Amino acid sequence: MHEAHDTAQSDASLPDGPVDVVVVGAGVVGCAIADALAPDHDVVVLDKSGVAEGATGRAAGVITPTLFYGDLPEVARHANEFFRAFDGTHGFEFTERRRYDYVVHDEVDTARDRAADLADHGFPVTYLDTDVVESEAPRLNLDDFAGAVRYDDAGWVDPYTLATALKRRATDRGASFYLDQQVDAVSSNTAELADGEIRAHTVVVAAGFSTPDLLGRPLPIQPYRTQCVVLEPTEVLDDQFPIGRVGSKHLYFRPEHNGDLLVGGSHDIVSDPAGVSTQADESFVKEVALTIPELVRGFGDAGLVNGWAGVDSATPDARPILDQVDDVFVAAGFNGLGILAAPIAAEAIRSQVTAETAAFDVSPFSFDRFSDSTSGFELRTTSDVGR
Ligand SMILES: Cc1cc2nc3c(=O)[nH]c(=O)nc-3n(C[C@H](O)[C@H](O)[C@H](O)COP(=O)(O)OP(=O)(O)OC[C@H]3O[C@@H](n4cnc5c(N)ncnc54)[C@H](O)[C@@H]3O)c2cc1C
């Protein structure tokens, strides 16, 4: 989790005349959309706090587009290519790392079929028995499992650095960021602030769980809280230690550059997203402390480095809305996957703003796929998706 505040603010006063595009929200998604539109649009980004101060700065940064979007192969390919192309520019780093998703005995057939299907689409995905996994990654312990699905195109990023790198490139391309600017409401061509409004030909809202409030209407989006802790093992992890997920326990983990282990999990719909604790719960820390030593060797006496919680937004089918709602463009409902999906959102929104053909079919992200836009729904966690 990043504590620093990106203080680089535009000194200029807010624009008087209409601009091409106003983006509300400077999380990773707003920054990615600004970056994608800035080459040929006059773009203004507004955020009530700072860059990556919402869910983005609290994310684990695990990047596995193939796992979560492999059923939409062109979408997954677009995200996979983005992270490799952006790596090494504007201070951004993509750390490539193999990923193993542990598979319990009664899920072997499903996991094998899914791995084979993804491989048929050209993705480097394989189902492996436990002895093979443990020979490749000796710190993993799969005693209670039948095998694992290996993704050879996974990796991780520092989400704060990704957002600020996108902001930097967007700024180089001419976008202006105005931070500490609370937007009260939007319409198809205005963003209303406490002391006036900004007019724009196009308004994009990428404000996380606050998006329905800004539009002043219900959307099939619910805020949910999720958590991370960092553990320091007695023997540091080496620089090839893989990313992992134990769906049956709703936990995932990735190494840190210093050999610690970041562990994420727990998903609870919340009614007061602004008021929830940003600390990890003691019960979650205990669960991690009990579970991880069984899965990763050398964590019996691990120390707790830190822990935190953040709030993201969920939709009924665990896919974001990237579409116009009442003539306002919306990019929200990332279901714990908005870091890896930021380039997907940027491409989908750019194609609709410019009427260009997107790199993939954007219809899976349409608003009208939800017939009942107001009712609550059961949360599908990232542990359930892609299994
Ligand atoms: C603990 C945790 C772990 C996660 N791990 C991963 C992971 O490993 N991989 C992954 O892909 N995703 C992960 N995610 C999900 C990811 O963080 C989010 O999906 C993503 O950050 C969403 O980005 P965003 O820009 O839409 O929202 P946010 O980052 O929440 O940004 C929204 C912005 O809108 C601004 N805003 C809100 N209301 C207003 C207003 N009225 N006026 C002006 N500005 C406003 C906020 O200040 C904020 O900066 C994780 C999330 C959490 C909480």
From TrEMBL:
<dbReference type="GO" id="GO:0016491">
    <property type="term" value="F:oxidoreductase activity"/>
</dbReference>
<dbReference type="GO" id="GO:0005737">
    <property type="term" value="C:cytoplasm"/>
</dbReference>
<feature type="domain" description="FAD dependent oxidoreductase">
    <location>
        <begin position="20"/>
        <end position="349"/>
    </location>
</feature>
<dbReference type="InterPro" id="IPR006076">
    <property type="entry name" value="FAD-dep_OxRdtase"/>
</dbReference>
<protein>
    <submittedName>
        <fullName>FAD-dependent oxidoreductase</fullName>
    </submittedName>
</protein>
<keyword id="KW-0560">Oxidoreductase</keyword>
<dbReference type="Pfam" id="PF01266">
    <property type="entry name" value="DAO"/>
</dbReference>
<dbReference type="InterPro" id="IPR036188">
    <property type="entry name" value="FAD/NAD-bd_sf"/>
</dbReference>
